[in-house]
Amino acid sequence: MANVRILTDRARLYRTLRSAHLERAHELPPAAILFRIKRYDFHEELATGLVLVQAHPVRAAWLLARSSITTLEIGEPLMLSSVWASTLAISALRLRALIGGSRASIVCYALENADPFERQLDIRARLRRGLNGIAARFVWRQTDRIVFGTDAARVTYRTALPEPARDAASVVIPALPAACACIADGDPEMNRVVFLGAFAQRKGLPSLLAAWPLVTKALPEARLTVIGKGALENQARQAVANDPTIELVIDPPRSEIHRQLRRASVLALPSQPTATWREQVGLPIVEGLAHGCSIVTTTETGLASWLNAHGHEVVAPGCTPQLLADAMVRAVQDPRPAVEDLPAIDGRLAADAWLFVGA
Fold first, then answer.
1. Closest Cα to residue 37, out of 80, 74, 72, 81?
2. SS3 of residue 197 by DSSP
3. CA–CA separation, 237 and 244 (whole Å)
4. Which of 243, 281, 306, 345 is the most buried (most CB within 10 A)?
């Protein structure tokens, strides 16, 4: 980890850092990455060659104030868990400009598709939300360039926040992947479904396991691979012990995740909303598409309309096990040639090129 003055002219400010961020960073022009927390899926070997600085928001702001960066990517304004870190970072850069430094451009990539200010909360939480709202509006008004990763995110921001005080430039670039370079090495099993992600209620693992016996009743040859880790690991292990059609892969390296995705024909991620969370896109969905998988998910993802329009299976959250099972059966029996629908350039890379144009 770097622990020195930031010498690059670009920087990215993340609350949490995960392997997908590291993989993408290797494909992008050099930029320092300041972050606070490593995600559960952070693989150290991917950090080699990158400028990473793990820092509390106050220290991150201090490092930015002393830097010569010209463009800073912040967390999106409606990500309230990181909005104060963004506020501190922007304030530090604006102070730098006031005392004779150059003015840095502030850019962001926005995926939030649920208005956090509409949630029903108790009095204390409403007060905290009000303070967060002040910070979110400050960050929003200071942002120079915005890419929305989904149409749902664009609509959410129009509702949740006023128009920026200045003429910020914005565009929608769908958060769709290009086909993974490793897909040519694949030999998919036409009856294999994969779940990839945190073993958590919100990612829909209990819903999937409840529906699976109905899938194998209709398709005895169907097989399920459950990949990830999390609080519901014991539930996943119990399912494997009771059903020989299910296999479990706990916290594998990235190479194994790619192999398992090449092996599957369907990826299922039946995300379920909580009081404070809604699936923005779903990285497993993006990775499944990149590896040629048909997708089974819920209307929670911001990609729901695109998936629906391109023949994937989208069900309502909280639907019955039978409805979810029927969707998986249809996906197995009629797989989509997903890679043919994907852009030539990964949507996040295209967004980055637009955000940092001229930087």
1. 81
2. strand
3. 11
4. 281
The pair of three-digit structure tokens given for residue 325, joined into one six-digit string:
């099972």
Q: What is the pLDDT of residues 196-212, one digit of tens each?
A: 999 999 999 999 999 99
Q: What is the mean pLDDT of the chain?
A: 92
Burial classification of residue 122, based on how many CB atoms lie within 10 Å of its CB (0-12 exposed, 13-18 middle, 19 or more buried): exposed
Bridge partners, residue 73, by sequence: 12, 107
Cβ-contact 256, 225 below 8 angstroms:
no
Copy the structure tokens of residue 319: 């639907």
The CA-to-CA distance between both ends of the chain, in Å, stands at 24
Inform me whether the pLDDT recorded for 67 exceeds 90.
yes
Answer for the pair 188, 287: CB distance below 8 angstroms, yes or no.
Answer: no
Return the structure tokens found at 126: 């409403």
Question: In the sheet that 223-229 helps form, which strands lie side by side, from edge to edge?
Answer: 246-250, 223-229, 192-198, 266-269, 294-298, 313-315
Phi then psi for 72, rounded to 5 degrees?
A: -120, 125
Alpha-carbon Rg for the chain in angstroms: 21
- CB 308 within 8 Å of CB 314: yes
Mind listing the pLDDT tens digit for each residue in 154-165?
999 999 997 765
Contact of 107 with 144, CB cutoff 8 Å: yes
